[in-house]
Design goal:
Oligomer: heterotrimer
CATH topology of chain C: Rossmann fold
Strand order of the largest sheet of chain A: 14-18-19-17-16-15
Number of helices of chain A: 30
Number of strands of chain A: 22
Helix content of chain A: 40-55%
CATH superfamily of chain C: Response regulator
Largest interface: A-C, 43 and 46 residues
Structural class of chain A: alpha+beta
Number of helices of chain C: 5
Shape of chain A: elongated
Number of domains of chain A: 7
CATH superfamily of the largest domain in chain A: Histidine kinase-like ATPase, C-terminal domain
Radius of gyration of chain C: 13 Å
Number of strands of chain C: 5
Largest sheet of chain A: 6 strands, mixed
CATH class of chain C: Alpha Beta
Chains: A alpha+beta (869), B alpha/beta (97), C alpha/beta (125)
Number of domains of chain C: 1
Radius of gyration of chain A: 46 Å
CATH architecture of the largest domain in chain A: 2-Layer Sandwich
Strand content of chain C: 15-25%
CATH topology of the largest domain in chain A: Heat Shock Protein 90
Structural class of chain C: alpha/beta
């Protein structure tokens, strides 16, 4: 399978689990923002990753879930049980789909329909948002977007060339772009020049300083002080996409061809020009463009190129050239150019637009302004103003002072001219004049200060401090990362098997040592082998421990399915139950954890079904209406102990006795002698079921005997305590690890048998005198209590021991809280084995737990003491 | 080493990043007649470009990259030391937004 | 010229794998981190990381906090940093920008978009 899909299935699976878990926690604390965020993040991440695959139904469902959670996160929606049910259902569906993806790499056929139905249900819960939140900025006309006064920053020569190029290559729309990068943009990783370089088909370009350059010793190399102005031929969307990270620093305006015509220069004209104007008007009327070009070029040789009129004439040349070719729409422009010359007034492109000019409505290129309008505060505008004010504040030698005042005055004047603030323009001009007069920046500086004050929106300094504090907090909260590695479990299993084999293989060394001594008579060699064995043994032990550690998983993995189980069951039974999880970080071998799941489910079901009372009953009994089931894990010695306790009604010993009598499991005599605790333990008797009615929760037939058997099959123990009216506690004991079993080898009738260490309480030699025979049964007294004694030879049907002896080797075995002595012939060493279950014909022999291969190749039969006794 | 400083000439090589700006301006400040060679420069960060525009070192050779070539020849045309008066003139007529 | 190194930060291994696939094919060197904390740790130790692409929502330290922290490091003052966002996180983009991000990518990231943006913000490649 595609490794990316495999990765996705694993990851999304984990995220669904965590989402499930958080949903349940949230139901208890619906206002916990951290939980909602964690939940949102999980679903959000699933959606993000799902987007990589072609699974629309899946994405649609997760997307709906995400939107719902956004509403919850923004406190527009409370996750009540109904919403939670739906989200849980969605998680279940996603889980199913992930499984299907894992098997077939595609979603089930019904996924589309199911996904749509479920997504619609989820969406039905999402309240409408308050106000528009996702208005696309680029579609809204921004302040000043109809202004292209800044286009004049580009030199006339370039604009003339752009004009010709735009006409010649007929195609693509013209755009004017003004880009004033943020002075601090380098610290955002930006490179404005590089960005501008990516603009396609630039026809004209000007790169200049934003204001004047500072003296070289004051220039900050890391402050960007450039303005880019350009005309390009490209799709607007494409250019906007390019500048999408800096929308506040750029203006992108569609341009009609005639908007490039920006004559400039000193005023003044003269008779030569007037003569030309008359001639030109006549040539225009006659549509004689060639003649016009000729006349214009002749005039340009006569007049000062720095004059405004010269500029007009240059444009007349350019426009006449192209309108002669193929641009009838430009005739109006040409006429207006000529008219402006004759009337001694500035060229006005609007007067030339008689509807024949294709392109934009006049407002798009309007240069006309009406009085002082308080502008919307444009950050760019403000920054330039501030920048200019700063320049005034810099130290300056007196010879340069006049130049600086003039320069600032001009820049600010241009600024106001471009935004149409004529009153401000006049004010600046006046201040600039008086500053020059008294040779001090003072008047101009004051004026600028006032203007900045008017235009600056109030900024709460508190907000800045909060931000700084947040940053500081974010930095101090850092901590070392946990590095984890995800490994396929089959690889760990293989490693575990190999180390198991190694442990067994090393066990052959003691045999080898004995052979060296007995067969080859080399005691020294035998000792050396034993020394080496000690080293290998230690290493193997350490290695085994290390690998065991790898296999250790927190029981949280198993616990996490219970909140959901308890919730669903409680809702079904109409009971109120809190599940408390404790010791989730307790670790155990993964096999143990996996083997534990089913017994635990039964125990928890029992608690819910039979233990916890309905609320009214609980209140009547003086208990809180909501019952509590506690699931706690801890490690005791080399066991993991899992405790399931409830504060329900407990088990009534009298009821148990009555029930046992009724089912004829005990006789009246025996029942009378039973202590309360013993009566409660009757629950473990096969076929005993106390539920008055069989419910679909606990089901039929899964009695406590079955649960106990299952636990014992995993090598564990199960105990139960109950106090009538107060609750029940079950304790599950399981070995930390089950992969390698430590057995004690015992010799009986010339054969070796293995007995799992965990059932052996102790080994003792009992003198014949200490063995008491009561009828057929033997007993002995061990530390004050009487224990039954059985003989392994008899249990296995082997001939009786006829050796001469005055004491017996007795192995004391613990079985479900009861001690039993087992007489064997001789104790041998303890050994680590890998237990292989019996299979084939012998698989049904219940007395054996399995076999293991010994270091010398012999096969060891491992006894199942519970079955034998 | 994207900028090689040899006496009064600095040679720009390959990709010249923003990190070079501090060294470059220090070098520019220390030279009476700085010259730069941009022929082998494939990328010029804005920070370096703007220092060239602002401090007007003599450009010995322009880069091969057409866009850089265009920007620099434009800047060099507008900002040669001898025509400084033209600068303010162009600003005076240009609008800022 | 040596290959440019990009650090990818995302708590989703699937996302990392997908971005890695696209970028490594295009010849970029890659480093990966599955949390903001780990990324910061890597950033402090690494000699040369030319660019960072980070997810927004991650465990404790989110993408914006990571960007702020990275900008405090000498080596990352000017480095391009992109943030992975979704269509619905428009408001976060401005916040990311203000925190020092160069730009953002919209998930699911198309290979052509990714490479185009990387070329845009990481000059000299």
């Amino acid at each position: 399978m595609n490794p990316l899909l495999t990765q996705f299935i694993t990851e999304a699976g984990d995220l669904v689990e965590s989402a499930d878990e958080n949903l349940l926690k949230l139901e208890r604390n619906p206002h916990d923002d951290d939980l909602i965020n964690a939940l949102f993040r999980a679903v959000h991440t699933i959606k993000g990753a799902a987007g990589l695959f072609d699974i629309p139904a899946f994405i649609r469902l997760v997307h709906a879930g995400e939107d719902l959670l956004v509403a919850a996160r923004d406190h527009r929606l409370l996750l009540d049980p109904a919403v939670t049910d739906l989200l849980l259902e969605a998680m279940d569906r996603i889980r199913d789909w992930l499984a299907a993806l894992g098997e077939t790499e595609r979603l089930p056929d019904d996924a589309f329909e199911i996904g749509r139905t479920l997504a619609d249900k989820l969406r039905a819960f999402i309240p409408p948002e308050n106000g528009p939140t996702s208005a696309i900025a680029s579609d809204a006309p921004g302040p000043g977007s109809d202004q292209i006064g800044w286009l004049i920053r580009i030199g006339e020569e370039q604009l003339l060339a752009a004009f010709s190029a735009a006409v010649a290559e007929n195609g693509g729309s013209l755009l004017a772009v003004s880009y004033v990068p943020d002075p601090q943009c380098f610290f955002n990783g930006e490179d404005p020049l590089h960005l501008v370089g990516m603009v396609p088909d630039i026809l004209a370009l000007h790169v200049g300083a934003n204001g004047d350059w500072l003296p070289s010793d004051l220039i900050d190399p890391y402050t960007c002080n450039l303005v880019f102005t350009l005309v390009c031929r490209a799709a607007r969307a494409e250019v906007e996409h390019l500048f999408r990270y800096v929308p506040d620093q750029v203006m992108i305006v569609p341009l009609s061809l005639d908007a490039l015509i920006l004559p400039r220069g000193r005023a003044d004209g003269g008779p030569v020009v007037d003569d030309f104007a008359v001639t030109a008007a006549r040539l225009c009327d006659r549509n004689d463009q060639a003649g016009l070009v000729q006349a214009a070029e002749a005039l340009l040789g006569l007049i000062d190129p720095g004059l405004y009129t010269a500029s007009i004439v240059r444009w007349i040349t350019a426009v006449a050239r192209v309108s002669a070719v193929a641009k009838p729409g430009l005739a109006g422009v040409l006429a207006e150019l000529v008219r402006s010359l004759a009337e001694h007034r500035p060229f006005d492109v609007n007067r030339s637009r008689s509807g024949t000019m294709p392109g934009l409505p006049p407002s798009a290129v309007s240069h006309h302004h009406t009085g002082f309008v308080a502008p919307t505060v444009d950050p760019l505008f403000l920054r330039i103003l501030q920048e200019q004010r700063n320049i005034l504040g810099l130290p300056c030698a007196s010879p340069e002072l006049a130049g600086r005042i003039a320069s600032v005055g001009r820049t600010v004047a241009c600024l106001f001219a471009s935004t149409g603030q004529d009153e401000a323009l006049a004010e600046v001009a006046a201040a600039s004049d008086s500053a020059l007069l008294i040779r001090s920046v003072q008047p101009l500086a004051q004026t600028l200060d006032a203007m900045i004050a008017v235009h600056t929106p109030s900024v709460a300094p508190a907000a800045v401090e909060v931000l700084a504090a947040a940053i500081a907090e974010g930095v101090t909260r850092e901590h070392g990362p946990t590095r984890t590695l995800r490994v396929d479990r089959s690889k760990i299993d293989l490693l575990m098997n190999l180390i198991g084999e190694l442990v067994v293989a090393k066990n052959s060394l003691p045999f080898l040592a004995r052979r060296a001594e007995e067969v080859h008579g080399s005691r020294e060699m035998a000792r050396e082998i034993k020394d080496q064995f000690a080293v290998v043994d230690r290493l193997a032990q350490e290695m085994q421990n290390a690998i065991m550690q790898v296999r250790m998983l927190p029981v949280a993995q198993m616990f996490q399915r219970f909140p959901r189980l308890v919730r669903d069951l409680a809702r079904k039974l109409g009971k109120q139950v809190d599940l408390v999880l404790e010791g989730e970080n307790t670790e155990a071998d993964k096999n143990v954890i996996e083997g534990l799941g089913d017994p635990l489910v039964h125990l928890i079901r029992n608690s819910l079904d039979h233990g916890i009372e309905p609320s009214d009953e609980r209140i009547a009994a003086g208990k809180p209406a909501t019952g509590t089931i506690r699931l706690a894990a801890c490690q005791e010695g080399d066991c993991v102990v899992i405790e399931i306790s409830d504060d329900g009604r407990g088990i009534d010993p009298q009821h148990m006795k009555a029930k046992a009598l009724e089912k004829r499991m005990v006789d009246v005599e025996k029942a009378a002698t039973l202590t309360d605790d013993e009566a409660v333990q009757l629950i473990f008797m096969p076929g005993f079921s106390t539920a008055a009615a069989i419910t679909d929760v606990s089901g039929r037939g899964v009695g406590m005997d079955v649960v106990r058997t299952a636990v014992e099959r995993e090598g564990g123990r199960l105990t139960l305590n109950s106090r009538c009216g107060l609750g029940t506690t079950c304790r599950l004991y399981l070995p930390l690890s089950m992969a390698v079993t430590r057995v004690m080898m015992v010799e009986t009738a010339g054969q070796l048998f293995g007995v799992p260490m965990e059932v052996i309480a102790e080994t003792v030699r009992v003198p014949f005198t200490a063995l008491r025979r009561i009828k057929a049964a033997e007993t002995t007294v061990l530390r004050g209590s009487i224990i039954p004694v059985l003989r392994l030879r008899r249990l296995l049907g082997l001939p009786d021991d006829d050796r001469e002896r005055d004491s017996e080797a007795v192995m004391v075995v613990r079985l479900s809280n009861q001690m039993v002595g087992v007489v064997i012939d001789q104790f041998r060493e303890g050994i680590d084995i890998i237990l292989k279950p019996l299979d084939g014909v012998v698989g049904n022999l219940s007395g054996y737990a399995g076999t293991a291969i010994l270091g010398d190749g012999r096969i060891l039969l491992v006894l199942n003491m519970r079955e034998i006794l | 080493m994207p900028i090689l400083y040899g006496g009064e000439i600095a040679q720009f090589l390959d990709v010249c990043a923003v990190d070079e700006a501090l060294d470059f301006i220090e070098w520019l400040r220390g030279q009476s007649r700085p010259k730069i060679d941009l022929e082998s420069c494939t990328h010029l960060h804005t920070a370096l470009f703007q220092l060239i525009v602002a401090m007007q070192p003599e450009i010995n050779s322009l880069p091969g990259n057409p866009f850089l070539f265009r920007c620099l020849s434009e800047a060099a045309r507008i900002y040669p030391p001898a025509q400084k008066c033209l600068v303010s003139e162009s600003v005076s007529r240009g609008g800022d937004s | 010229m040596s290959a440019k190194t990009i650090m990818l930060v995302d708590d989703s291994p699937t996302m990392l794998m997908s971005l890695e696939g696209i970028l490594s094919k295009a010849g970029y060197g890659l480093m990966k981190a599955t949390s903001g904390e780990a990324a910061l740790e890597t950033a402090k130790g690494a000699k040369k990381i030319d660019m960072v692409i980070t997810d927004l929502y991650m465990g404790k330290m989110n993408g914006i906090q990571l960007i702020k922290a990275l900008r405090q490091l000498q080596n990352f003052r000017f480095a391009p940093i992109l943030m992975l966002t979704t269509e619905s996180q428009q408001d976060k983009r401005a916040e990311a920008k203000a925190s020092g991000a160069t730009g953002w990518l919209v998930k699911p990231v198309q290979p052509t978009d990714l490479l185009q943006v990387v070329r845009q913000v990481l000059p000299g490649t």
